[in-house]
Amino acid sequence: MSHTAAQSWGDLPVKATAVGIVGDQGASFTVYEKNWICKSCGAENHARRKRCVRCKAAKPQDADSQNLVVTPELSKFLQDGSLEWKEVMDPKSNQLYYYNTKTGASQWERPKELGATPMASGWFGRGTTDPSAVSIASLNARWMQRPARVQVQMGSKVKYNMEGNQEYNIWYGKYIGENWHQGKNNEPAESRCDPEKDAGYTKAKAQGRSGLFCIHFARGFCGKGSNCSYLHRLPELEDEVRIGDMHDIFGRERHRDHREDMDGVGSFDNPCRTLYVAGINKMSYKSPEEIEKSVRKHFEVWGEVEHINVVARISTAFVRYRVRAAAEFAKEAMRNQALEANEVLNVRWARDDPNPVAQEAIR
């Protein structure tokens, strides 16, 4: 296989697309393909594009093999096929750790020998320097030692509307009284959740479906604090398993299909961990990399982020979480919020990724 070896993960071209995964489950690597240059007009095209965006000339037949980009870790694996480290799930904590089959050593951080985390790989590969699943569990444990803070005083102008508490209108695809529309003329959110200040213990107990999360806490305007009957902390994998597939973490019934506008509680038949984030003010950022940095800063607060894809051309980003529960919380916490440029974000569920690599990994 002909390919270009990158010096390190950080040296990979920004304009590269995941085209395949090599290796066994629990010890896999992602293969990337660089954008191809049209021989007729010189225009640069995305790897998956079969014809030139400018002159419509066909993609050269040798482009796929000539433009492959792999890391040194993957190059070594392709040469000798040896890999001592494996990913293992701890049944007690439901967290990944890494086990060396040769030495018997184990650790939480992803070893350098495995390289970067495979894109869209679900639980099979946590980041090298960001074991945020472990940090969220420890943060929750620390926050639960104090009473939850009252975010707003009762009777403030902030609207209280518990979506899912009313009857579901099949014709319109939403609940009666559901007035949290998201559009171009939306006003900025009046409040925002800050887990470091707001999270704490409440009257809720995380037992069965009785321990649900407070949607008002997620949106930053719960006026009950420690007297609330719902959880005021960040969700973990155990919460998703405990509550089940038929309801979201806030106790709202999920449906067989997504709504046409991809808003709402989501689908139990087609579960999604990826959020569509629109409304980014791209003119206020110097580069797509700066946008991605800002998106990561604001969205990784709510859970372990697996992958972020910024499409600067249409002022949009796609944020994939490791756990569906984290995506559900982030969707409510970031609706109508801003990044760094006073945006009013439009946050919905993302449609299925057309990339077959991502589709296969999600399964």
Describe the structure.
By secondary structure, this protein is of the alpha+beta class. The protein is built from 9 helices and 15 strands. It has helices at about 65, 70-80, 130-145, 195-200, 215-220, 235-245, 290-300, 325-335, 355-360; strands at about 5, 15-25, 25-35, 35, 45, 70, 85-90, 95-100, 105, 170, 175, 275-280, 305-310, 315-320, 345-350. A 4-stranded mixed beta sheet has the order 1-6-3-2. The chain is globular, with a radius of gyration of 22 Å. Residues about 5-15, about 120-130 and about 175-185 have low confidence and may be disordered. GO terms for molecular function: pre-mRNA binding; U6 snRNA binding; zinc ion binding. This is Pre-mRNA-splicing factor RBM22.
Compute the separation of the termini in Å. 27 Å
Q: In terms of per-residue confidence, which ranges show pLDDT below 50 for 5 or more consecutive residues?
A: 4-13, 120-130, 175-183
Compressed to H and E, one letter per element, the order equals EEEEEHEHEEEHEEHHHEHEEHEH
What overall geometry do the principal axes of the alpha carbons give?
Answer: globular
CATH topology of the largest domain: Alpha-Beta Plaits
Mean pLDDT: 77
What top-tier CATH class of the largest domain fits best?
Answer: Alpha Beta
User: What's the CATH architecture name of the largest domain?
Assistant: 2-Layer Sandwich
Per DSSP, the total helix count is 9
Proportion in helices: 10-25%
Structural class by sheet pairing and helices: alpha+beta
Query: Measured on Cα atoms, how large is the radius of gyration?
Result: 22 Å
Family: Belongs to the RRM CWC2 family.
GO cellular component, one term: Prp19 complex
Pfam families: Torus (PF16131), WW (PF00397), Zn_ribbon_RanBP (PF00641)
Domain WW: 85-113
